[in-house]
Amino acid sequence: MAAAVRRPGTPPAPQALRRFPNPRLTGLGSGLFCGAVMVVLGYLDSLLFGASLTLYGVLFVPVCVLTAVWVRRGDLMTAPVVLPIAFAVGLLPLSDHGEGIGGHLMGLFTGLATQAGWLYGGTLIAGLIVIVRRVRLVALREMARRRQP
């Protein structure tokens, strides 16, 4: 069994971080990513846990964090916009199904109302991450501008 080769003087943590994927999603890609993940999580929650809305809300928070971290620099402001849409789309398999379209809409609105804390919390966390990334990006651009003669 071969041991991992490490360059002398290189700390192990940055080397380990380089192995992690670093995807960069466009605005549309971030919407599709979080929408697809929330629909899959909604169906899994419905099948495995009997439509637990609290579990769905808890699972929404990591999706928010990943979306905010993985979105491209140019599309930073799209992450907090697409997250509530993805939450609502993923909630469709979990909502109580009444008779007709009115029953479906009533179940969806009830789910959105009862899980508003998770929705707002996840969106707020993503918004904070995006703001920090944006401030850092502006500061780096300003430092680069000052260095140029």
- How many structurally independent domains? 1
* Secondary structure category: mainly alpha
What multimeric state do the chains show? single chain
**Secondary-structure element series:** HHHHHH
Mean pLDDT: 87
Please indicate the percent range of residues in DSSP E strands (runs of 2 or more): under 5%
Shape descriptor reads elongated
Tally of separate helices: 6
Could you give the distance between the termini?
54 Å
Radius of gyration: 20 Å
Summarize the amount of helix as a percent range: over 70%
Largest sheet: none
How many strand units?
A: 0
- Outline the low-pLDDT stretches: none
Characteristic key phrases:
mainly alpha, 6 helices, elongated
Describe the structure.
This protein is mostly helical. It is 72% helix and 0% strand. The protein is built from six helices and no strands. The model has no long low-confidence stretch (mean pLDDT 87).
Please give the structural blueprint.
Layout lengths: L11 H7 L8 H23 L3 H18 L8 H13 L8 H15 L1 H32 L2
Helix pairs in contact: 2-3, 2-4, 3-4, 3-6, 4-6
What is the compact description of this entry?
The protein has 149 residues and is mostly helical. The chain has helices at residues 12-18, 27-49, 53-70, 79-91, 100-114, 116-147.
